[in-house]
Amino acid sequence: PDVIIEAQFDDNDAEHGQDHLQDMLTDDIKKLSLDTGEKGKAAEFSGVQRTKQDDGPKANDPRLLPDEFLQRTAKVVYILEKKHSRAATGFIKLLADRNSELFKRCAMFSPVDHRVPRVYVPLADCPADFVSKPEAYSQMLFICRIVDWKEDSNFASGQLCKSLGQAGEIEPESEGILTEYGVDFSDFSPEVLECLPQNLPWVISPEELAKRRDLR
């Protein structure tokens, strides 16, 4: 069977010249295509292959391949704007390792949205009786806001903002969704309320109804 060799090319290859890349490909072909019984033919095969490639065009140069055969790669160099609100709805529970030093300081916050990482939250933010009665809060929804996520940690660090109430109820669930998406659901200010008609009950005049499209 044909042997396919994959090679990664970067700026270092350009600095060392094409011969370095050619030597690497030739060595890989020798290792993959020859078994122990054909070692005697290795020098001859390698010499012929090398001579033909040196005399001809550099066919294995990735820079000469058409764009449709290349996989473009990139890396993140800067976070321009944090779009996520860093707030999540979820549940709190004690850490599994009760003998660890972290158990005495933090609890684990598990978001409902699995796209958000689990978060270490200080026990000081939790209810006073959470450590003694964690089962009482197993179905209680909380809002947590992520404040940091270190590169060497599997879990983020955050703070509990508030308790929403029992999971499954409409008001806590709705408040959690609005908070996660950064929607301001606070009461309207007096300035906004003054824009509304003050003479109640207010009705739409027939002239205004004639200019509107009725979607009722």
From TrEMBL:
Extent of Basic and acidic residues compositional bias: 51-63
InterPro entries: Dis3_CSD2, NA-bd_OB-fold, RNR_Ribonuclease
Gene Ontology biological process terms from the UniProt entry: miRNA catabolic process; mRNA catabolic process
Region (Disordered): 38-63
Presence of keyword Cytoplasm: yes
GO molecular function: 3'-5'-RNA exonuclease activity; metal ion binding; poly(U) RNA binding
Principal location: cytoplasm
Compartments (UniProt record): Cytoplasm
Gene3D superfamilies reported in the protein's UniProt record: 2.40.50.700
UniProt keyword terms in alphabetical order: Cytoplasm, Exonuclease, Hydrolase, Magnesium, Metal-binding, Nuclease, RNA-binding
PANTHER family assigned: DIS3-LIKE EXONUCLEASE 2, RIBONUCLEASE
UniProt protein name: DI3L2 exonuclease
Species per Swiss-Prot/TrEMBL record: Melospiza melodia (Song sparrow)
Gene name tied to this protein: Dis3l2_0
